[in-house]
Amino acid sequence: MKAYKPNFTAEFAMDLYSAGSVVLPELLLRCYSQLGITEMELVLIIHMWRLRQMEQEYYPSPEKLSAFMAADKSTIEELIANLIEKKVLEVVRQDDESLKRPVEIYSFRGLFEKLAEIWACERATQSRRAGETLEGLGEVYQAFEKEFGRLLSPMEGEKIVAWLEEDKFPPELVLEALKRAVLRGILNFNYIDSILRQWAKKNLRTVREINEYERKFYERQNLKGSGQRTAKVNRSRKEKFKDIYLS
């Protein structure tokens, strides 16, 4: 019979999994700095939540908390005082059925109220942006149908939605890309997409930035062609964007 050889990696993984895990709100980790919470204070909160979830200890002493952090008792006491002053932590009294008397516990009600405010603001911003996207979608859709002289196909409609919602191109930039495709005489979604991708690559997010980028491009082209900064290249409507946005 083959001798059993323990797989230490597997056993470690099993022990790690069976030891449990601590649940933390993602919003807290992402937005703690907005609440004025320092990294040391955040680590303290995490340990307090760990003790609450894993050991049902709701009022850990500074001595116990200091054992898990690179901080002494006085530093822990100062961190707790800071959290109370910032109104993310408070000490409240709660009836303990086992002890038949009230006991003090740490409450994070203030922290959750502040997180709820951030969450509500984020949701409101998302709703406003969604409304703006829908409003912009209608304008862009109508402009495309007008220039193409026909109804757009479902795939073309999905492409416009992807530009606005997934790629986060502002409606005015999509309309500017359409304008350049019309001037070039190339009413092609792939060509319009290549224009938008080039703007994104150059980090151009406004019409003003795009116009400035094109102006500098043609200045360089003029200098290459004549060797003089004041030289000008005459272009027809179809040639205007021929060099800068190659199809």
From TrEMBL:
SUPFAM superfamilies the record matches: DnaD domain-like
Source taxon at top rank: Bacteria
Positions of the DnaD N-terminal domain: 25-119
Residue ranges occupied by any DnaB/C C-terminal domain in the UniProt entry: 141-214
NCBIfam families to which the protein is assigned, alphabetical: DnaD_dom
Similarity comment: Belongs to the DnaB/DnaD family.
UniProt-recorded name of the protein: Primosome subunit DnaD
Species classification: Bacteria, Bacillati, Bacillota, Clostridia, Neomoorellales
